[in-house]
Amino acid sequence: MTLALGAWLPLLNARFGAGSQDGAILYGANSVGAALGALIAGFVLIPAVGSTMTVVIAGILLFVFGMTWSTHRLAWLALIPLLGFAVPLGKFPLLQRMLPDGYAGSEDIYRYEDAVTITHVVAQADGQRVLLTDLQRMDASTEPAAVELQKNQARLPLLLHPAPQSVLFLGLGTGISAAGSLPYPALQRTAVELSRGAITAARDWFAPVNGGIVERMTVVRDDVRRFLRVSAQGYDVVIGDVFHPDLAGRRALLSVQQFELARARLNPGGVFVQWLALNQFDLESLRIVLRTFRHVFPEGVLFMDGFRLALVGFEQNAAFAIPSTKPDDSLAYADDPSGGEGGWTWLGRYWGKIPASEGPLQDEWRPVIEYRLPHERYRSEPALAAVLAWLLDQRPAVEQAAVEMGVATGDFSALESPFIAADLGLRSWLAALRGRDAESIRLIRYAYEANPRDRWISYSLADEMYAALSRSSASVEDRRRALQAILGVSPDHAEALRALWRLEQRAGDKALAEAYLGRLRAVSPFDHDVVAEAAEQEISGLPPGARE
Question: What pLDDT, in 10s, does the model give residues 101-120?
């Protein structure tokens, strides 16, 4: 193919070109056509009709232009079957056919293509929606635990600032992360997002789980690096969203230059947080990123939230102010900046100062992790266990952490239990990764005793309790009590809520069944059973003649 594409212009010149000027015209026309074709295909045809139909149109145009030199007019009849094939071949294949292992039984509900990316919103078999980029990576999910994890990406940075008035989100995605800022009604929110498809998806397809956040913020469609470079506006908090650093063009978001641009946009006393998904890194690549961040923010610190790591930097190299840490149980969940966990739980996730180390930095002009991370996709043994073990070794003792955060002596006991619980929780997950299930269960129970407010610990314990119940042959009454005990540990455990709803339905207690269904609907509005029940209730409310 390369040989043919390289040879066709010289061959045309030899066949039709009488002189050197004709050859220059051919080459010039080819160059202009290539530039116009790229612009028209990338910015007109692909957004309008999709990439597959664009290829079909290009094929038809090549046939038409090629036939202008043919002396056999009947050959033009071949255009008829070509046009007939255009419609079926121009349809974008269903995701469940292209990726059957991960998306069998799914439904494509939205797709947008342009020169930047292909954005899919997919309804999985269980009803949960997924934002998918370039048929390669799941950016976000509406699964209840994933929703809370995404909201936490805004909660921690805003809690670390004593009085945030403005926030900049570097990436919008589904908008669920930004929804963690909703407890701050006067907050000025700005998000920068390059993908038009992601902006539309956040507004139209994820609003039930992001609180309609797109209507409460300024969304700028731009490249994050360009925006930070040309903008002069400052922000109290800047949040770097989780992204897939092994995809081409995205590693620069973890470079020295990117972190310097983010720091330049901070107001006095401002906070910058860059989130990393630990399962996307091997240990050496993670250390390169940490070293790079510390180069720009010498006093930077770390926080852990599940399997995500927060790199926290401050506009001034000074200890951060302790946020309001006393839990207020009178607050409704939607109004609680901590997400119902309390400030001490968040301080308990402190992981110490970024350790100093020697080695290369991630630089836009001298990149390093570009050549490492793609290999992680094909490792026979994921590197997550090694990464978690290293992070455990780096964590300071609780006494040292209290000093580093400036916790008063009288408040030490309030920090100690959440701090130990976070440590036990991570050790439990590490034991599970290494196949030591009994140790993992024991550690997560100890962690829950230390801090029952920690959502990830309560989720893990509730999951284990539900799995044990599923393996048992308990009576109906024992099953009811066990499910209620699970909700006592994790009140928004979707599987337990669904099981109790069905159980009370079968028992004939309509009021209690409806109460559990309402709680499940609030936690998981896209759940297949919830949607099906709503449709059934809507149909049953119609006149008999209209039900059909």
Answer: 888 888 999 999 988 888 99
- Examine the domain organization and report whether 492 and 385 are in the same domain: no
For residue 180, being part of any structural domain is answered with: yes
Query: Which of 85-99, 433-447, 508-522 is least confident?
Result: 85-99
Query: Number of helices (H) and strands (E), helices first, in the chain?
Result: 26, 12
Range of the domain at 524: 472-547
| Distance between CA atoms of residues 168 and 181, nearest Å | 11
pTM (global) more than 0.85: yes
Burial class (CB in 10 A: 0-12, 13-18, 19+), 358: exposed
Report residue 541's pLDDT band, with 50, 70 and 90 as the boundaries: low
Quote the mean pLDDT of the chain: 89
Residue 20 lies in a domain: yes
- Cβ atoms of 190 and 168 closer than 8 Å: yes
138 by Cβ neighbours in 10 Å (0-12 / 13-18 / 19+) ranks as middle
Has residue 451 been placed in a domain?
no
CATH label of the domain that carries residue 347: 3.40.50.150
Instruction: Judge whether 213 and 179 are in contact, CB under 8 Å.
Output: yes
Token pair listed for 76: 């033009």
Query: Any bridge partners for residue 276, and if so which?
Result: 309
Coil, strand, or helix at residue 140? strand
CB atoms within 10 A of CB 112: 20
CA distance 437 to 424: 14
| Domain final position from 407, 427, 455 | 407
Confidence of residue 247 (pLDDT cuts 50, 70, 90): low
Residue 398, in any domain of the structure: yes
Question: How far apart are alpha carbons 304 and 387 in whole angstroms?
Answer: 12
Most confident of 22-26, 174-178, 368-372: 174-178
* 127 plus 239 within the same structural domain: no
Residue 259 contacts residue 297 (beta carbons within 8 Å): yes
CATH number at 511 reads 1.25.40
Question: What is the bridge-based pairing of β-strands 166-170 and 188-193?
Answer: parallel
